[in-house]
Amino acid sequence: MTNVSYLSTYATSENTVSTPPPTVSNEMSPPHTKKRKNHSEAWNHFIILSEEEQKASCKYCDTKIKYNNGTSSMHAHLSRCLVYKRQRTSSSMTSAEEHVGSLLIVKFDQEAIRRTMVKMFINMEIPFRKVEHESFHEFMSLASPRFQVCSRTTLARDVLKLWDTERMILKNFLSELTKSLSHH
Ligand SMILES: [Zn+2]
């Protein structure tokens, strides 16, 4: 059992290393496997836990499956495995982008995050000074390392801006409503 957990831990860390050379998967699956006649591509994504019990675990998410019906259960799992899908998305990028790591897939939009943050502070009734809280900074620097957390003054200004925008929208809406009502 210790062997197995070692294997899967190894496989997991291998896959999360930020700059894996593209040849890694070939090294891990020798092209000539004597034992298996139908060497399906699906085997590359699983670690055999027990040949007798026909148990394997997914390299990406550690889910255990039984493969007694050939590789169909493997394919079935891969089609559902979110970790695998995420990796495939990142590996379909150009090699230059690959080196930056999986974070690159997330589109970074400073303004969108900031607008959402302003709304969050209003909706959750969080005091503006909390934007300067150490814990909030720590959280944001991990969640979105490129996002620049603003000061409480900027946040307050943003809130006013948002309030202005919303007020204009409401004003326009009301004047349209009044117009359409007065026509009847
Ligand atoms: Zn999986």
Automatic annotation (TrEMBL):
Recorded superkingdom: Eukaryota
Record carries keyword Signal: no
Family matches, as PROSITE patterns: ZF_BED
Domain BED-type: 37-91
GO cellular component: nucleus
GO terms under biological process: regulation of transcription by RNA polymerase II
Biased composition (Polar residues): 1-28
Keywords for this protein: Metal-binding, Zinc, Zinc-finger
Record region (Disordered): 1-37
GO molecular function annotations of the record: sequence-specific double-stranded DNA binding; zinc ion binding
Name of the protein in its database record: BED-type domain-containing protein
Biological classification of the source: Eukaryota, Viridiplantae, Streptophyta, Embryophyta, Tracheophyta
